[in-house]
Write a structure and sequence with these properties.
By secondary structure, the protein is of the alpha+beta class. The protein contains 17 helices and 13 strands. The chain has a single domain (35-332, 352-410), classed as Orthogonal Bundle (Cytochrome p450), CATH 1.10.630.10. The protein binds protoporphyrin IX containing FE.
Length: 412
């Protein structure tokens, strides 16, 4: 136990900078003392693998709708200022924040365009982009920032190419993505200016994509954006706002999380030289290694659900109208589920980690994230024999997404 340890899991504890640097001692303590917290403002915090899994698989839990929104939902905004809002001034939600049957309808439509085949076809391009970024970083004799020079550009280029966004616009893309990712954190804990800048980023993004959508409608290509514009299912199509909300989701989900897989994964290997050496010697372990790194320091640390009906989880009654904060990062280090959970083992037998969630909202981009993770971490470990830390890494402020702001390393 460390001095940072809070005796019970609270939202505030998650924002403590010491917790952010290493949340795992807190998680371990909470699992032992209060695996499900006493509710504060109708919010329960869940830390155990079995309880988080149960909630994610249980359709009595979903997302709050309309007035039920509670403290975790963005406040209505002045609808005159924004276009990507509904008639009540609530931001139009992507299917990540919807319940069946709306969720099922949209997810089905998007899945028809964003297919495993489309992702597999990307392999040579991802390998090429990875090689180019590494060539440039390896040409530098001194330290490089692995986030800026490798982990961050790779997924942006991949998602931009997938959507066929012009090369010149990719920097704006990255800016929007960062601002929107921050807004994933619980709304009432975010400073007003962060929320506002995220809303503005959404608008700019929507304006930009409205034009691109019109162009692709007139002149379709073989990219994901054209496929989403054209997708239909028994006469059903995506409305313009549904399409825009989906594109925003794909941008944040596709960029900010994969950066963290590469960044957190590299840092974990640097802290475990024996595991790094083993992966170098046994490159065929890369698939297992990526799963283990997803488990060991998960890019998405938590998610929320709302009790649509009275429920019971792990012996705890969770009344309708409560919120459940599911600590995925803790569940992935639960000793009841994983043998020796704090050990990094790149050869670990496949585990039932929750890094991509579970149930109806299971990550739609998991095949792409895995592919990028395998190619990026595989190439980095094989091609950078001198890979070592050359300074103190720093963490981003986000709470939902756990990732490094900087990772100074020497590669040669
Ligand atoms: C390492 C990288 C990634 C991680 C750790 C990750 C994690 C997650 C998690 C935990 C969820 C479920 C959230 C919840 O249930 O509340 C989710 C959903 C989702 N992810 Fe990912 N993700 C990653 C990469 C991607 C990529 C590359 C894409 C697409 C380009 C993507 C697209 C989505 C979408 C569309 C959903 C919503 C699914 C639904 O609501 O039905 N993700 N992701």
């Amino acid at each position: 136990m460390t001095e940072t340890m809070a005796s019970a899991p609270t939202l505030q504890a998650l924002f403590d900078p010491k917790h952010r640097a290493d949340p795992y001692p807190d998680y371990r303590g909470w699992q032992l003392t209060a695996p499900i917290s006493e509710p504060v403002d109708r919010l329960f915090v869940l830390t155990k693998h079995k309880d988080c899994t149960a909630v994610l698989r249980d359709l009595r839990f979903g997302h709050a709708e309309g007035d039920e929104a509670g403290p975790l939902r963005a406040k209505p905004v002045d609808a005159k200022e924004y276009t990507l809002v509904d008639e009540n001034g609530n931001p139009v939600r992507s299917f990540l924040g919807l319940n069946p049957p709306d969720h099922s309808r949209l997810r089905k439509l998007v899945s028809k365009a964003f297919t495993p085949r489309m992702i597999t076809q990307l392999t040579p391009r991802i390998e090429q982009i990875t090689a180019e970024l590494l060539d440039a970083a390896l040409a530098v004799a001194g330290p490089v920032d692995l986030i800026r020079d490798f982990a961050s550009p790779l997924p942006v280029v991949v998602i931009s190419e997938l959507l066929d966004v012009p090369l010149a616009d990719r920097e704006r893309f990255e800016g929007w993505s960062h601002q929107l990712a921050r807004a994933l954190d619980p709304d009432f804990l975010l400073p007003a200016e962060v929320r506002e800048s995220a809303m503005r980023a959404r608008e700019e993004f929507a304006d930009y994509f409205r034009e691109l959508v019109a162009l692709r409608r007139a002149n379709p290509g073989d990219d994901l954006l054209s496929a989403l514009v054209a997708v239909h299912d028994q006469g059903d199509v995506l409305t313009e706002n549904e399409l825009l909300a989906t594109l925003i989701l794909l941008l944040i989900a596709g960029h900010e999380t994969t950066v963290n897989l590469i960044g957190n994964g590299t840092l974990a290997l640097l802290h475990h030289p024996d595991q790094l050496a083993r992966l170098r010697d046994e490159p065929e372990l890369i698939d297992r290694a990526v799963e283990e790194l997803l488990r060991y320091d998960s890019p998405v640390q938590l998610t929320f659900r709302y009790a649509l009906e009275d429920a019971e989880v792990g012996g705890q009654a969770i009344p309708r109208g409560s919120f459940a904060l599911l600590l995925i990062g803790a569940a992935n280090r639960d000793a009841e589920e994983h043998t020796d959970p704090d050990a990094l083992d790149v050869g670990r037998e496949p585990s039932r980690h929750l890094a991509f969630g579970q149930g109806v909202h299971f990550c739609l981009g998991a095949p792409l994230a895995r592919l990028e993770g395998r190619i990026a971490l595989g190439a980095l470990t094989q091609r950078a024999p001198g890979l070592r830390l050359s300074g103190e890494p720093t963490w981003k402020d986000n709470v939902v997404l756990r990732g490094l702001a900087t990772l100074p390393v020497t590669l040669r």
